[in-house]
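Help needed: design a sequence for this.
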């Protein structure tokens, strides 16, 4: 090979190396790493059925462009602080329970009223109609707090869990100290002459073990997941539930490319379905596990149930009226929730 050809090959080789390096650098520059945080242990059903599949779907849909740093189990901050973390940009996306900030987000508690739905999937469908873009809660609750909901799993209807005390009728419940989320559940406990105490789920085991609490308003699956000390649980009655929202700040959302927004939106729709189906299955399985472990599943008599239903019948209207007095659209959101429940 003469010197001119050798020089040409050398130049072409150098050019190819520059092009490849440039493409690699461009791909690296395009990589978007987002911080995701939640309060739950990694074996909890929301991370397993919702958050992890959502992250995987977004990464796949963007051909690896979007990556995630995941901080479960309050590694990035306490459950009650996750809203402020996403608003401040410490986290990009978090899972949050609006009841932990009921002063800022009181309206979502309408879905936590007793007897509002019979399954996680029914509740999730109801809430998503209100939480997605254009929905009542999206406009009146979430947007004013500078956040956008990516998906919104509703936990299964909450039952009553007792560490030691029988809960076979209304009289047994009187005076019990029970964990609640706040808001609507606080009024429910007041009606039942019990004492509702706000405690995040991650602190429940210690509070019940020490006797600070007599039990909790909680799901069967949550009781199993957190290994709560339990001797009695109600089997069928619904004392409300918990709204959870997987959220990103509106400011961060606006910075994302359109194709990433599209991937996140589609993954959110899928996550709503997968997480509620998983939770409903685990809720049924959890009751069987509790019974196998010696926990008594209490089924109230028809007379006791009628009495309980009569006591709780006025909770929704009283809750809405109280918000109305505070200048909040309590009656409006209750009407919107009932409309969503009817499928309209």
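Sure. Designed sequence:
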């Amino acid at each position: 090979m003469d010197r001119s050809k050798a020089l040409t090959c050398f130049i072409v080789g150098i050019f190819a190396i520059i092009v490849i390096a440039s493409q690699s650098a461009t791909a690296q520059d395009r990589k978007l790493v987002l911080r995701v945080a939640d309060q739950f242990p990694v074996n909890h059903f929301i991370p397993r059925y919702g958050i992890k599949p959502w992250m995987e779907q977004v990464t796949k849909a963007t051909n690896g462009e979007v990556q995630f740093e995941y901080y479960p189990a309050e590694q990035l901050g306490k459950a009650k602080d996750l809203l402020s973390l996403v608003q401040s940009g410490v986290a990009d996306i978090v899972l949050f329970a609006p009841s932990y900030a009921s002063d800022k987000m009181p309206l979502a508690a309408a879905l936590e009223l007793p007897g509002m739905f019979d399954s996680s999937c029914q509740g999730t469908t109801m809430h998503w109609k209100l939480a997605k873009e254009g929905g009542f809660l999206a406009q009146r609750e979430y947007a004013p707090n500078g956040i956008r909901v990516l998906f919104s799993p509703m936990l299964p209807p909450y039952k009553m869990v007792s560490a030691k005390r029988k809960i076979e009728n209304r009289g047994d419940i009187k005076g019990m100290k029970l964990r609640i989320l706040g808001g609507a559940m606080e009024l429910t406990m007041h009606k039942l002459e019990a004492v509702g105490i706000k405690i995040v789920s991650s602190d429940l085991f210690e509070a019940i073990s020490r006797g600070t609490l007599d039990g909790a308003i909680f799901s069967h699956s949550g009781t199993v997941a957190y290994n709560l000390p339990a001797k009695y649980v109600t089997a069928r009655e619904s004392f409300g539930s918990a709204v959870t929202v997987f959220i990103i700040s509106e400011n961060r959302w606006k910075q994302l490319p359109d194709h990433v927004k599209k991937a996140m939106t589609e993954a959110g729709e899928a996550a709503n379905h997968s997480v509620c189906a998983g939770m409903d299955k685990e809720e049924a399985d959890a009751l069987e596990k509790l019974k196998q472990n010696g926990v008594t599943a209490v089924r109230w008599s028809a007379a006791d149930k009628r009495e309980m239903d009569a006591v709780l019948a006025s909770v929704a209207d009283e809750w809405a009226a109280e918000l109305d007095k505070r200048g909040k659209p309590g009656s409006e959101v209750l009407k919107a929730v009932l409309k969503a429940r009817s499928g309209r």
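The chain has two domains: 33-154+242-282, 159-241+295-341.
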